[in-house]
Amino acid sequence: MRVAVIGAGIVGVSTAFELAADGHEVVVFERRGSVAAETSFANAGVLAPGSLMPSAAPGMPLKLLGQLFSREGALTLDRLGVWGQIPWLWRWWRACRPAVHATNRAAMLRLARLSQERLTMLTQVLRLDYEHSRGYTVLLRSDRELARARQGLKLLAELGVPFELLDAARARQVEPGLNPETALRAAVHLPHDGVGNCRQFAQQLKTEAVLRGTDFRFGTEVQAVVPGTRPVVVAGGSEHAFDAVVLCSGAATHLLRALKLHLPLAPVWGYAVTAPLRQLEGYPDLGPRSAVFDEKYRVAVTRLGQRVRVAGCSEIGGSAEHYDERALRTLYRVLEDWFPGAFVPTQAQRWKGARPALPDGPPVLGASGAAGVWLNLGHGAAGWTLACGSARVLAEQVAGRAAPLDMTALGIERLR
């Protein structure tokens, strides 16, 4: 089959590779000049299926309201742009109900485990050489956070996800760079989870896709997709016919609207600060060994080679130009709480990127309902964790085979 993939972020590149590996003739349309140039450019790098959960969770609406008036916050609303997101927020609020949250989290965990298996296999078979390390530790500052964590650990046990509940002393052995002055009640350690350089992986997988015949067309904006038995992509003033078209660009909502696919996608903005690790003789444990996650602030601190990246926060209704100083303060606070003096602040680079997300959490995978058009989008902050699994699912479906996992809560039907 001749298949078009629209978007060359981590999801689009992974999809193009899987389709090409199955023997399809693949063409990728990307408006930027390279792969992983937007949402995938400076994400946290976390690969942690065990800690994955939808942002729509019990207790989150009250937490959001509380942080609206605080000086710091991992959840923020842009007061000017939020009004356009009221319908999305309404659906998000309804998805925070415990039963809905449980269904969505289970769906995301199933997909994440498949993705982890596929990522590991590709890394080994293709001998990909990107920055990555094993081990992910969720830091719990209080008894309340520990009590909440215990509820989620039950689901991990049911799904067979390896984890260890650590006391504070043991957690500091796993991550010896943790600041002894910061209160720590307990931690959850996920030994098979970890961190990886998403952009490096995407670049190397793109090379493998090209070796299998994939044609990447960078700097090419797609104006329209015309569905049909031979769907057409209108790009660069020309029309290109295919046997199937896969939309992997959640930001291209104009394409969805033209196809009468009214998906509740919204750009949830994330922040990151990256800086070189400080090198001090006699202090080999500055910074994290792999990755830690501050449960209170929902912020990750990760090690990428000789750099440290602190990333997180979710801003609804924002824009690329405006940086919310509360979000940046939160990132710096978490970094200084756990790893004071670990990075070189004068060389810090800050980043803000849109993560197109659906209000209930899981992405949407599979047939769109428009003839010849398929969907692999809406991953939100979990694109890197879910990319390889989502791509494998999509490739199986395009080929007319059954998906390799239970698709409950992953199809477009749940959004209608």
UniProtKB/TrEMBL annotation:
Keyword list, A-Z: Oxidoreductase
Ranges for domain FAD dependent oxidoreductase: 2-396
UniProt-recorded name of the protein: Amino acid dehydrogenase
Annotated InterPro entries: FAD-dep_OxRdtase, FAD/NAD-bd_sf
Gene3D superfamilies: D-Amino Acid Oxidase, subunit A, domain 2, FAD/NAD(P)-binding domain
Superkingdom, natural source: Bacteria
Pfam entry (one): DAO
Organism name: Rubrivivax gelatinosus (Rhodocyclus gelatinosus)
Entry keyword Oxidoreductase: yes
Family statement drawn from the similarity comment of this UniProt entry: Belongs to the DadA oxidoreductase family.
Keyword Cell membrane appears in the UniProt entry: no
